[in-house]
Amino acid sequence: MRPQEGRRGEPAAASSSQPAPAELAAGHGAPPAPPVPAGPPGLASPPGAAAGGATAEAIAASAGAFLEGLARGSRGRAQLAFESSEREDWHYVPRRRAGLAIGDMDDRERGAALALLRAGLSPEGYRKVEGVLLLEGILGGIEGSPAFRDPGRYHVAVFGQPGPQAPWGLRFEGHHVSLNFTSAGHAVATTPAFLGANPAEVPSGPRKGLRVLAVEEDLGRAFLASLTPAQRQRAVIAPTAPLDLVTEASRRAALPGFDGLPAAEMTPAQRAALIRLLEVYARNFPDDVAQGHLHRIERAGVERLHFAWAGSAAPKQSHYYRIHGPTHLIEYDNRGGDHIHTVFRDLQDDFGDSLLARHLQEGHGAPAGQRP
Length: 372
What we know:
The protein is an alpha+beta fold. It has helices at 21-26, 53-68, 72-78, 107-120, 123-143, 214-225, 229-235, 268-282, 287-300, 353-364, and strands spanning 79-80, 100-101, 155-159, 168-174, 177-184, 187-189, 193-197, 236-238, 261-262, 306-311, 319-324, 328-334, 340-346. It is 33% helix and 17% strand. A hairpin with a 5-residue loop joins strand 12 (328-334) and strand 13 (340-346). The protein starts with 20 loop residues before the first helix and ends in an 8-residue tail after the last helix.
């Protein structure tokens, strides 16, 4: 159990023996690079998921069906105003949450909620979320706290009215899951997207050996192993892994600069392997959304991506990596070698920043780049 994931779900201070997030962000004492813009880029760049029209339509239809099938009291819990501050108040620790919990739904309502989740994810992404919920029950057995580690404590919240007429949002969230969708017009933004796994590998019982986020771990370590000694010296930014993701559950995932090994200094084979690792995260979403993210990364320049590692290269030991480019950030942290946190973030379109700015300008004449 991580310090910030205790029974009260309250963040704990980092140990003084561990590198602070700022130290990790800056690497081995190198001068920080210029800040990376994280806000809406205006009309010069398309929204993060401009290619996600089919997914936007699918989740709107599924969200509408989910809400229509709820009793009045349940619908009042599940549906909040789009302008609610809850929409951007995300986290991945156990805590009180807005929305309607799966455990408070009947079978029909739960089926509609899961259909809504399937509409926003690829089959592989949905399988991972199923696995995370399964792990929650397993963790409850390991800890002897089944009431606290309850797979029914995952909440669905719909912000606004689903459809193409006005912006609306969707969140599915609980311990080790935070999936945030923002839709406007016929497009959808899909970040921040967090998935975690504890245990990273189930130690015993009927599910012994299950590794829900195995590919994220194995491909990351394999990529580090593919580097030459000189490349590895550039890539490894700290000898110990952080206690958590460096950006944590921040509203904006800003880092002071690009650290680690730039893709411009990788071989073609290494660059292709880096893209394969990045795709593991992007392809948790349907193909139209994933391609939207990947095309923007390519347009911004694959050679501008940076790979950074911290901690041990050995299995079952604490380790961390990130992929950071002009438009996107991926962080993976494995504390103690058996407790994984991952996040996929769009530096221009988390919570639909760019998407909403464009929607306002095109529909209501708001200035380019203005946040709604």
